Amino acid sequence: MSNILETTLGPLVLKNPVMVASGTFGYGLEYSDVMDISVIGGISVKGISLAPRPGNPPPRMCETPSGMLNSIGLANVGFDVFVNDMMPRLRDAKATVIANAYGTSADEFAELCRKFDDVEGIAAIEVNISCPNVKSGGIHFGVSGKPAAEVTRAVRKATRLPVMVKLSPEANDIKDVARAIEDAGADSVSLINTFRGMSIDVNTRKPRLGVGFGGLSGPAIRPLAVRMVYEVARAVTIPVVGMGGITCLRDALEFFLAGASAIQVGTANFSNPMVAIEIIDALEKYCIEKNIRPSDLVGKVEMG
Ligand code: SIN
Question: In what order do the strands lie in the sheet with 195-197?
Fold first, then answer.
């Protein structure tokens, strides 16, 4: 077999099915001195908006049992700086760039994605309708089918790039939202973003995050993510990208078996930036040993 790990997500062809999740790997460049970032299946960069955003007041991250909370608030450099300063270096590094897009209205999403359409070297757009840390946009679009479809339709019209929509686990019914997004023209869905959580310092009696609440990620949410991937993969015909607490090959295999065609590694990058590359190596060895491709595993859980 030539490239045993090559993976197709609708119109998007990846060299392997292991991506890094938005918000957990910066813009990719931060790691380019210590590793070959072109090896990663796809780098979903920090969520980008039309204008730069300062994000929420600190503290914006804290560790929790088997996970972490973040309340970053989509702090980012904005479209112009990303495209002019970072994209040339990402192209030089031959990174597979997934632009994670954030807007506060369907029109703003469309404008941003129309602009991404003209940028050389962007492989796909991941539409963020699931961030729990912003006052408008984000999760407000992702909790039910109607607004999720409205944003997806606007983005679909605005770009020829492959469109992946990132789902919130806090949707009223994540299967309905995924179906509405598929009907509106998305090429794939990725799930799950974080769950809203809270942690309190019992000495100061204050929340441990500056804005009180934040999104919970990491191994603590993995069983919830696997269940949702299983359900969504049976509800739609477009490919599903699974994420939520993946730390090693075993965790990745769990998501493939549940129905994910590709995966994203998130929180684990903070403790081991090499984790995605380690999983790619381990997955390649596993597939060679078993004489299979990752796609042979997709949805193959045996429910008994
Ligand atoms: C954030 O920037 O607040 C996290 C990103 C997200 O949850 O989508």
Answer: 61-64, 67-70, 214-217, 195-197
Model pLDDT, residue 2 = 61
**Mean of per-residue pLDDT scores for the chain:** 97
Q: 3-55+75-200+219-296 maps to which CATH number?
A: 3.20.20.70
Residue 1 confidence (pLDDT)? 46
Of 62, 113, 131, 248, the active-site residue reads 131
Active site residue 131: yes
The domains of the chain are located at 3-55+75-200+219-296
What is the Cα–Cα distance from 153 to 144, expressed in whole angstroms?
Answer: 15
Side-chain-side CA neighbours of residue 66 (13 Å): 9
Q: How far apart are CA 78 and CA 293, in angstroms?
A: 38
Q: HSE of 304 in the Cβ direction (CA atoms, 13 Å)? A: 0
Question: Cα separations (Å) of 277 from 38, 265, 273, 281?
Answer: 10, 10, 9, 6
Average pLDDT over residues 99-111: 98
- The predicted pLDDT at position 304 comes to 85
> With contact defined as beta carbons under 8 Å apart, do 49 and 112 qualify?
yes
Question: In the block, which residue shows the tokens 């970053």?
Answer: 72
The residue assigned the tokens 């994420």 is 243
Q: Which atom of ligand 1 is nearest to the CA of 75?
A: 2
From ligand 1's centre to the CA of 89, what distance in Å? 24
Residue 96 burial (CB count, 10 A): 24
Choose which residue among 56, 71, 74 to substitute to test ligand 1 binding: the one with the highest number of ligand atoms within 8 A of its C-beta.
74
User: Which residues surround ligand 1 with Cβ inside 6 Å?
Assistant: 23, 47, 70, 72-74, 128, 130-131, 133, 193-194, 215
Place of tokens 């310092």: 201
